[in-house]
Each structure stands twice: as structure tokens, then as C-alpha cells.
Write a structure and sequence with these properties.
The complex is a heterodimer of chains A (272) and B (323). Chain A is 36% helix and 22% strand. Chain A is of the alpha/beta class and 272 residues long. Chain A folds into 2 domains: 133 residues, 3-Layer(aba) Sandwich (D-Maltodextrin-Binding Protein, domain 2); 119 residues, D-Maltodextrin-Binding Protein, domain 2 (3-Layer(aba) Sandwich). In chain A, 47% of the residues are buried. Chain B is mainly α and 323 residues long. Chain B has 2 domains: 49 residues; 247 residues, MetI-like (MetI-like fold, Orthogonal Bundle), CATH 1.10.3720.10. Chain B has a two-stranded antiparallel ribbon. The longest helix of chain B is centred in the first third of the chain and has 46 residues. In chain B, 35% of the residues are buried. The model of chain B has no long low-confidence stretch (mean pLDDT 87). The chains are: A alpha/beta (272), B mainly alpha (323). At the A-B interface, helix 3, helix 4, strand 7 and helix 7 of A face helix 6 of B.
């Protein structure tokens, strides 16, 4: 009886180590995550032995993972901060950015809200707490429920940099931790205002015109929409030519890659 | 009595049994074995105690950098929590206040319900029903907190917005209600145990003096079990204050102290949600990192203190029963 148990244990342990397939680890942004997922699915269909894992824990987490050597590619919706870069170089990691798509951070409100457009300054005033009621910006007499992404998010960084101009948000601003949550809050709260990536704008929330420009594929790809940002994949140095990482990071240049980016609601870089 | 043949081969006794006098090597082996065994078990027990002490040590060590660079007074008395700004501000008062708000409000809902349920289970309902209901209540404690969090965000928040007319459904009230439901099994279990442990004699004595059922329950039983009940409440409080997932999803995470202080329909942020929300992105070793660990130290101090209080009351309860 004991011999059987020993044999079974040995078999189970060996079974784990018998997977000698190639692995690709991606970690980082919840915005870039869906693109990485789509690429990963396509790659798995061509290379069945390839094991790709995509973790979506936030751009900051992705940078930390790349710096620690825990992942091959870091998905980030913002560029690496100076501190992260310095830490990477001290650890012997030399981050190289690949821009795989463009994203617009869209300011959204509940579909029942009559407000259709705001200026950047008005949005800034709302998030700084100077404007507390929708009637002050041409809406109904309702208090504004302000929703923001938490500070570890790349979407927050972009919004903070381009719209808030690095000013502090008011204390009553609510924080949620991912794009789907922000979408859910705005969808269910009549007086809410929030911001999500273009990929998360659908018919259940209403995107506002900012400074007279509606976020759409054209305005974002050309950079006309004021709150546009590139989406990055960072690797350690330029990936070895012909390696799986290199193929993954240059996939966005192919027609299939651009189609996948578009399917996810982002804006491909070239007019394929 | 039927005659049976004994099939056992009789052997000399000395071959089967151990001699009473041990040889020196056997003696030494026995001595080493017993002391080694004791040492190993002691070591294993120590390692669990050591684990707890090491947690304290590491958290305080990581927080040390912050506490030496920034003023503790500003940390405890200011409300601006902007750790990633150009000039970082670490005012944790709103976070501490948020934790306190959510815990106290949850106790407000869970203590009356919990104690009355405990009284009902121990004094009023039959043993059969009690034997069925108590495990079901303890099952409530096994529901993962993220499931509660989902319920709070997807069901309770819209309900609060539509039916109660609050501008935002993710607020202190939402988090408090869910925390009350989470703390209930603990409170009911411990309170019920301490009320049942009082024994029949106490109640029989009260009835024999002519007291009604209500007078017995509220005048005799509950006061007699007060140490155990307080311990139950403190344990429930510990559960509420340490809960992370639910408050992160349901409280709205606005680092503010509600404007008229009694308005719990406004969004608050707790210490636990701050640590969970910010920890992922902070660069290791930065000021933000140490500040989060300082918030962790505050949390550890509060729960440690509550733990001591509950231990004190539990020992008092046991002593009172032992008399």
C-alpha cells in the first residue's frame, strides 16, 4: 500500500516537471491586458506548445515585475517613472518601450445625463471639487458623484497629467480599482462622472466631448483628442531577433495584430 | 466448559519481555530521544509564536523609514492623503476616521441583532432547532469576503441610490451593513456559548423567585454573561476593522471625513483599503511604501489592543463560571 502511494507521489511530481514548453510571462496594465490576451490567444493557436500568462494587476505592478525580472514583457498604459527606470538599471534591466496601440481616456457620464460636452477646465474643476453640482455645468440639479481610478493605475496617471495638470483631486472623489469597476459605477449612478479607456465605452455610458472633440478612433489616432495616450509593452533591452518575445512585441505591426487591437476597442497605430 | 486444546507454543518468558534493567547504551538512547523529542516539539511551537513576532518586527522595520522622515503628528492629525503628488502629503486622519466610522456603524447594526439572536438561541428556542440553526449561522462566516463585496457593489449600492435616494451607493453605510453581516456569526457564536455556559441553576433560581421570562433574560442571564458578551462584541469588532475586500469595493474610497460628521451616506476610505489599493504600485523602499507600512502599524496596534481587551474579558468570563 505504501509503495503505491510513493509511486503515485513520484509520478505526480514528475508530471509537473515534464512541461518543458516555452513560457512567456506578461504582467501589468488592465488597459493593455485585453490586447495582450488577444495576441496571446492568436499566438497559442500558431504555437500550441507556447505557454503565455497575462496578469493584469496595474501598470505599476508590471513595471515592478519587469524590474525584478519576474516577467518577460511589462504591459503599461503609461511610460515608466524615473524611479522605476533607475531601479531597473541598478538591477541590470534596460527597459525598452514598444508602443502597440493608442488609447483615449474618455470622460463618461450616465446616459440620462443631459450634459454632452465639457471643457478640460470644467472637468478639472469638477475633480478638484470647485464644481459640486451638475447645474453649474449645464445639467440637472443633482450633486456630482466623482469617480476616479486609484493611484496605481496608468489611466489615472494619464488623466492626472493631461486633464488635472498634476493638481490634487478633492477629498470627496471616490476611487475604484479597475476600468470595469469605473464603468459599472458610472452605469449605475445617475449623477456620476468618471473616466475609462476607449475600449470600455459602450452604449450603457455616455462619452463627453472634451474641448469640442469627441473621442473616436480618428481623433485619438491623430492625437487631436486632448486626452490621448500611447499603450506600451516594455521589455528588457530590445528582444533577441527571432525570439518569441520579439515576435510578440512586433505583432502589432502586422495586419492581424492591428485587427485584434481594433477589436478590443483601441486605435491601431498605422492605417492598415 | 468445553475442553479446547491450547495451540499456543509456550516460549520462555524472558525471550518475549524486556528486562527491567536497561543497558547503558539503551539508557543513553532513551534519554537523548526523549529530550530531542521535547526540543523538536518546543521548536515547532516557538516557530508559530515567532511568526507572529516577526510580522510585527518586519512591519515596524519597513515603516521605520517613514516615521523618521515625516512627522508623526502630521500623520495622525492631517486629512490630506496625497502620496504620489509632487509634494507628497501623508495625512492619515481620514483613513483612521474611515475605519472607525465603518466599524462603529457596523457594531451599531450587529450588536443588538447578535446579542438578541444569541439569547434566542440559548434561552428561548428548543435544543433541536438550536442544533440546526447554530451551524447554519457559522456557515455565514465561511462565505468569502469578495462575494460580500460583489453583493455590496452590484445589489446594495444601486438599491441605496434608487430607493433611499443617496447620491452615491458606495458609502460608509453600505460597507457598515455588509460588515455587520460578516461580524454577526462571530458575535452570535461567542455570545451564545457564554450564555449557555451559565447553566440551568441560575435560570431556575431566578424563576423560583418569581421572575418572568423577560425579567430573567434581561435582569439575570445577560448581566451574568456580560464578560462573554463583551468579548463577543470585541471579536466582532476585530473582524470588522480588519476587513479589506468588502470596504475596498463598497465604501467608495474617498479619503475624506464626512462633512456633517453623522452623515454616513458619504463615501469614506479605511486603512485596510488604502493598504490594499496602493500597495501594488508603490516602488519598494519609497516614502509611499513606508507610509503604507505605517498605516499597517496603526492597524496592528489597534487590533492588538482589541485582542488584549477580548482576552481580558474572556478570562473574566471563564473565572466567573469556574466559581
Amino acid at each position: 500500500m505504501r509503495k503505491i502511494i510513493y509511486c503515485l507521489t513520484a509520478i505526480m511530481l514528475l508530471a509537473g516537471s515534464s512541461v518543458s514548453a516555452e513560457t512567456l510571462q506578461l504582467e501589468g496594465s488592465t488597459t493593455v491586458g485585453p490586447i495582450a490576451d488577444a495576441f496571446a490567444e492568436y499566438f497559442k493557436s500558431i504555437y500550441p506548445d507556447l505557454q503565455i500568462t497575462v496578469k493584469k494587476t496595474g501598470s505599476g505592478d508590471g513595471a515592478a515585475a519587469l524590474v525584478d525580472g519576474r516577467c518577460d514583457i511589462a504591459n503599461m498604459s503609461r511610460f515608466m517613472k524615473a524611479k522605476e527606470f533607475e531601479k531597473a538599471v541598478t538591477n541590470g534591466i534596460f527597459p525598452v518601450a514598444h508602443v502597440v496601440a493608442m488609447d483615449g481616456v474618455c470622460v463618461v457620464v450616465h446616459p440620462s445625463n443631459p450634459v454632452k460636452k465639457l471643457t478640460k477646465a470644467q472637468v478639472r474643476d469638477i475633480y478638484m471639487g470647485k464644481v459640486r453640482n451638475w447645474s453649474q455645468v449645464g445639467g440637472a440639479n443633482m450633486p456630482i458623484v466623482v469617480v476616479s481610478r486609484d493611484t496605481s493605475s496608468g489611466t489615472y496617471e494619464t488623466f492626472h497629467g493631461l486633464v488635472m495638470e498634476k493638481k490634487e483631486m478633492a477629498p470627496h472623489v471616490e476611487y475604484v480599482n479597475a476600468n470595469p469597476q469605473a464603468h459599472a459605477r458610472v452605469r449605475t449612478t445617475r449623477g456620476a462622472i468618471g473616466y475609462v479607456g476607449l475600449g470600455f465605452v459602450d452604449s450603457s455610458v455616455k462619452a463627453l466631448e472634451i474641448d469640442g472633440i469627441m473621442p473616436s478612433r480618428k481623433t485619438i489616432a491623430s492625437g487631436v483628442y486632448p486626452v490621448t495616450r500611447p499603450l506600451y509593452m516594455f521589455t528588457n533591452g530590445y528582444p533577441k531577433l527571432g525570439s518569441m518575445i520579439h515576435k510578440f512585441c512586433t505583432f502589432y505591426l502586422t495586419e492581424r495584430g492591428q485587427e485584434l487591437v481594433e477589436e478590443k476597442g483601441f486605435v491601431p497605430l498605422t492605417n492598415y | 466448559m468445553s475442553q479446547r486444546k491450547l495451540n499456543i507454543a509456550l516460549e520462555p518468558a524472558a525471550a518475549k519481555y524486556r528486562p527491567l534493567a536497561l543497558t547503558p547504551s539503551e539508557d543513553l538512547k532513551g534519554y537523548i530521544a526523549s529530550h530531542l523529542g521535547r526540543a523538536i516539539l518546543f521548536f515547532i511551537t516557538c516557530s508559530s509564536v515567532l511568526a507572529v513576532l516577526l510580522i510585527f518586527f518586519f512591519v515596524i522595520r519597513e515603516a521605520f523609514g517613514f516615521l523618521t522622515h515625516f512627522s508623526l503628528l502630521e500623520f495622525l492629525t492631517k486629512t490630506g492623503w496625497y502620496p504620489e503628488a509632487q509634494e507628497p502629503k501623508f495625512g492619515a486622519l481620514a483613513l483612521i476616521a474611515g475605519s472607525v466610522y465603518v466599524t462603529v456603524a457596523s457594531l451599531f447594526f450587529s450588536v443588538p441583532v447578535g446579542i438578541l439572536a444569541a439569547v434566542f438561541l440559548s434561552d428561548i428556542v428548543s435544543f433541536k432547532i438550536r442544533g440546526f440553526v447554530k451551524p447554519v449561522i457559522e456557515l455565514l462566516a465561511a462565505i468569502p469576503s469578495v462575494a460580500y463585496g460583489f453583493f455590496a457593489v452590484l445589489v446594495l449600492a444601486p438599491f441605496m441610490q434608487k430607493k433611499l435616494g443617496f447620491p452615491t451607493g458606495t458609502n460608509a453605510l453600505n460597507a457598515s451593513v455588509i460588515l455587520a453581516v460578516m461580524a454577526l456569526p462571530t458575535i452570535i457564536s461567542v455570545a451564545e456559548d457564554s450564555i449557555s455556559a451559565l447553566g440551568r441553576e441560575l435560570r431556575e433560581a431566578s424563576y423560583s423567585l418569581g421572575a418572568t421570562r423577560m425579567e430573567t433574560i434581561f435582569g439575570v442571564v445577560i448581566p451574568a454573561a456580560h464578560s462573554g458578551i463583551i468579548a463577543a462584541v470585541v471579536l466582532g469588532m476585530m473582524r470588522a476593522i480588519g476587513e479589506t475586500m468588502v470596504v475596498w469595493m463598497a465604501s467608495g474610497n474617498a479619503s475624506q471625513i464626512p462633512h456633517p460628521w453623522w452623515d454616513i451616506s458619504q463615501s469614506v476610505r479605511t486603512m485596510t483599503a488604502t493598504i490594499a489599493g496602493d500597495m501594488g504600485e508603490t516602488v519598494k523602499g519609497s516614502d509611499h511604501y513606508s507610509a503604507l507600512f505605517s498605516v499597517g502599524v496603526m492597524l496592528l496596534i489597534m487590533t492588538f489592543f482589541l485582542n488584549l481587551v477580548s482576552e481580558y474579558f474572556l478570562t473574566r468570563a471563564k473565572k466567573a463560571l469556574g466559581k
